[in-house]
Write a structure and sequence with these properties.
Layout (H helix, E strand, L loop, with lengths): L34 E6 L6 H14 L4 E5 L4 H13 L4 H25 L3 E5 L2 H10 L4 H7 L8 E6 L2 H11 L18 H22 L3 E4 L4 H15 L14
Parallel strand pairs: 1-3, 1-4, 2-3, 4-5
Length: 253
Amino acid sequence: MEAQESTARPPRTEPTKSTLPQPGRPVPSRAYPGALIVVEGTDGSGKSTQLYLLKRWLEIGGFRLHFTEWNSSPLVKATTRRGKQRRLLTPVTFSLLHAADFADRCERQIMPLLQADYLVLADRYIYTAFARDASRGCPARWLRNLYRFAPVPDITFYFRAPLDVAVDRILSGRPKLKYYEAGMDLSLSIDRGASFRLFQARILEEYDKMVETDSFVELDGTLPVNKLQKQMREIVAERIDLKRFAPRPPEEE
């Protein structure tokens, strides 16, 4: 009996991606012309203040940019608020809600603007989920897989402040800590202030693990505001070709 002829198939090629590196795999190549700058750190580390100052500096210069922040999608805001008010959120449901929030912003804001050659600034990114959700007991590999679609930042600034400094900044400026903010769902302490301190210690430990694995640019969160901002601007100017995002000259008629 004659052997059946087999049709030769061309080898499959992986599409160009811009997602987070997975364990044991190389960092994927970029698939967009824009640039992504992220700030991370514990509560009270100064990250949001510094990103706001960087944003204003770039806006004054006329650069094309977009700002996005953690947990800001209208898609799940009402559900998250209801879950918090009724204290119904488990670590997994909390994590999935934040992932849905990020996925919505990534699809509607982050990726379209990166593809449109914009500079995107993110006040907290997926590393916030890696730190907080892992501190609540979610497996690190599961979290990485959950956010595997996320584009890799060009720069991730990690503002590290000692635990006592960061916690004191928050406690001195807040009349009352919220239930989940203080980590009360973890039964660490019956006192909200003590629970918050213990929760933040866990989060800080998780962030410190990512300094090397995720190429964080670590900055001292205890430095004066103006000195930190100067460092940020110098690093951004060194690593990103800002001229690409400068105002375009008007076209001649």
